[in-house]
Design a protein that fits this description.
The chain is of the alpha/beta class. About 45% of the residues lie in helices and about 10% in strands. It has 20 helices and nine strands. It has a nine-stranded mixed beta sheet with strand order 1-2-3-5-4-6-7-8-9, sandwiched between helices. A hairpin with a 2-residue loop joins strand 2 (about 135-140) and strand 3. It is globular and about 60 Å long.
Length: about 475
């Protein structure tokens, strides 16, 4: 019966459509289908919108679009005030053998404060901070700070590739200071000399030297739009993106807003969409037959036992999130007033987010991957700018009651994407799960070591992976 219907249909088609018209008709229909497909894809973006986050109403006059050089300066008064506060630190009694299981170890905190007060040289670190050019520009009423580093030793005819790198919490633009020379001068550091970047590292508004929003509602969508405007202001219509933590969220949103401008997106923190029933089936079967649900042996190693690595581990590390997503100003009062409290709050994350096994160490493993000078420089950026409270408000603004209704959950990411999965990251995102959102994964790398603060902890590994990803995109 089906064959007869097909034959009748074919006969009727041939009677009404001469053979000479078949090819043009097919091409026409094909063109319509392709056009419809492309049109549908171009529509799958997030509206970029606009905003005003300065004090008061938006002024009638045009915004000052100048890019102004700046230098980080040291004030004797602020150092004097810091030292006086450190001298007045009121310590509490430590628990025997508590290590980092209760948070920052009280005994080790004394050692950190002693180093900060007596050995840490902020003047020296400021000189290091100023080794790269700093700028500010006003966007949507906010003075936005950024570091902009151009390569100096390009080969004749060689072009650099613009790369926007965005930090997270409780980090800062300083996280990228170890990776910037590897990306801007790769040949000098034994990396691929053919992939050279011009690096732009902004501070998220409300973090460090970027002005905080004066109004409620400043989200990652707004940060993405502001950074897009920043890149346009610097003369870049096309560029690469890289991010972890909040930087991952912001760069992903920018890729969904302006895919025509984003040549490639590289992430070292994978924010996965809700999985539904398919994810549940994958989890159940993946423990025993991972290959059946698209998981690799390495995925299984990093995911299971599931409750221990994905439920209990997150519960242990997410207390800060609940506070900051509900009442950030309350804890902000304490942290903005006490340098010792600020250091404990921030450095505890650099311990357990680098490797959760560091909870079992009296000193939290802080100096296994970082120097104390690097760690305290990051803390000082929050202290001298008084930005800890505004940085924590970013959580309050970005966690709506129903996350599934936000625009990005309805839109895939179609730009070329590179994912670097570090083994000690807070959660592991297998490629098969990531594909639900990231529809054009060019590279997916199981990194051999490293945790949440990849650019500061493992700059060479991250730089090589960024280069490898961009090299493939450029060839495509």
């Amino acid at each position: 019966m089906w064959q007869q219907l097909l034959d009748n249909g074919r006969s009727a088609f041939n009677d009404h459509w001469p053979q000479s018209l078949l090819v043009p008709a097919a091409v026409g229909v094909g063109g319509i289908l392709v056009g419809w497909k492309l049109c549908g894809r171009t529509k799958r973006t997030i509206e970029i919108g606009d905003g005003w986050w300065g004090s008061g109403e938006r002024p009638l006059q045009s915004e000052n679009i100048s890019v102004r050089p700046m230098r980080i300066a040291v004030s004797d008064a602020e150092i004097k005030d810091l030292h006086e506060r450190l001298d007045r630190t009121r310590y509490f009694s430590p628990l025997e053998d508590s290590k980092f299981h209760y948070g920052f170890n009280a005994t080790h905190l004394r050692k950190v404060i002693s180093y900060w007060r007596n050995k840490f040289d902020w003047n020296k670190q400021v000189k290091i901070l100023n080794t790269y050019p700093h700028y500010k520009t006003t966007i949507e009423g906010l003075d936005v700070h950024f570091v902009h580093v151009k390569p100096t030793n390009l080969a004749p005819g060689q072009k650099s590739l613009p790369l926007l790198m965005i930090h997270g919490w409780p980090g800062s633009f300083y996280e990228f200071y170890r990776i910037i020379p590897l990306l801007t001068e790769p040949a000098k550091h034994g990396l691929n000399p053919n992939i050279v970047f011009e690096v732009i590292c902004p501070s998220i508004p409300g973090y460090g030297f970027s002005e905080a929003s004066h109004k409620k509602g400043f989200t990652a969508f707004d940060a993405a739009r502001i950074f897009y405007k920043l890149m346009l202001r610097l003369g870049f219509n096309e560029f690469y993106l890289q991010g972890g933590d909040w930087g991952s969220r912001i760069t992903t949103l920018l890729s969904q807003m302006k895919p025509e401008s984003v040549k490639g997106l590289h992430l070292n923190f994978i924010m996965l969409p809700q999985g539904g029933a398919g994810r549940l089936i994958s989890l159940v079967l993946g423990r025993y037959v991972p290959w059946l649900v698209g998981l690799t042996k390495e995925d299984a190693k990093r995911i299971y036992p599931y409750l221990e690595k994905n439920v209990y581990a997150i519960l242990l590390e997410s207390g800060y999130l609940h506070i900051q997503a509900t009442k950030p100003d309350t804890v902000g009062c304490a942290l903005n007033d006490s340098p010792a409290g600020l250091a404990a709050y921030i450095l505890e994350k650099f311990s357990t987010w680098t490797d959760n096994a560091f909870r079992d160490l009296e000193e939290g493993g802080l100096e296994k991957k970082y120097s104390m000078d690097d760690l305290l420089t990051n803390v000082m950026i929050y202290w001298v700018t008084g930005s800890i409270t505004s940085s924590m408000r970013f959580y309050k603004e970005n966690f709506p009651r129903n996350y599934s209704t936000t625009p990005d959950t309805k839109v895939g990411v179609y730009v070329p994407t590179g994912l670097a999965a570090f083994p000690c990251e807070l959660v592991h995102g297998p490629r098969i799960w990531a594909k639900q959102k990231f529809r054009n994964i060019v590279t997916y790398t199981y990194m051999p070591r490293g945790g949440h603060f990849a650019a500061l902890e493992e700059p060479e590994l991250l730089a090589k992976d960024i280069q490898n990803f961009v090299s493939r995109v450029e060839k495509i």
